[in-house]
Design goal:
This protein is of the alpha/beta class. Helices cover 40% and strands 25% of the residues.
């Protein structure tokens, strides 16, 4: 069954940073809200994302960053050095389909962070549109 916004998605967590949705096919759909973020809110948001993945035994996420503001250097460092590092504790690969932000500066911050994340637990692909991201996640089994 293809991953689309019309399928039943269950809200797992929400705060000012965004929403984390559970897809019945074992995918955490992470939707970022526009605008600036508080660092503590981002940490809580991603901590809950990690908890959902661990709780369900899932290894796939779709990061919808299309409306997102650029990551700050502090946010990028925490994501790469702490969050991604802890997601690989069980030595299982984590797969991320990332929908690129519309904002050019946000695109640059995401691209830079993803380049740094290659050494971490995340195998990812960057996408412009949902259908291509869906197809990549589906082919992972």
């Amino acid at each position: 069954m293809p991953l689309t916004l019309t399928q039943p998605l269950r809200l797992y967590f929400e705060n000012p940073v965004g929403r984390i949705l559970e897809h019945p096919d074992g995918i955490a759909w992470v939707q970022y809200q526009p605008g600036p973020r508080q660092f503590d809110h981002l940490k809580a948001f991603l901590t809950h994302t990690g908890r959902l993945l661990g709780l369900r035994g899932w290894r796939k996420l779709l990061g919808d960053q299309r409306l997102m503001a650029p990551f700050t250097p502090e946010e990028s460092a925490w994501i790469v050095d702490y969050w991604l590092a802890h997601q690989g504790d069980d030595k299982q690969p984590l797969y991320g389909a990332v929908l690129l932000p519309h904002d050019v500066f946000a695109r640059l911050s995401v691209s830079q962070m993803m380049h740094e994340a290659q050494a971490a637990a995340l195998t990812y692909r960057l996408f412009e549109e949902v259908p291509a991201a869906e197809a990549w996640l589906r082919q992972l089994g």
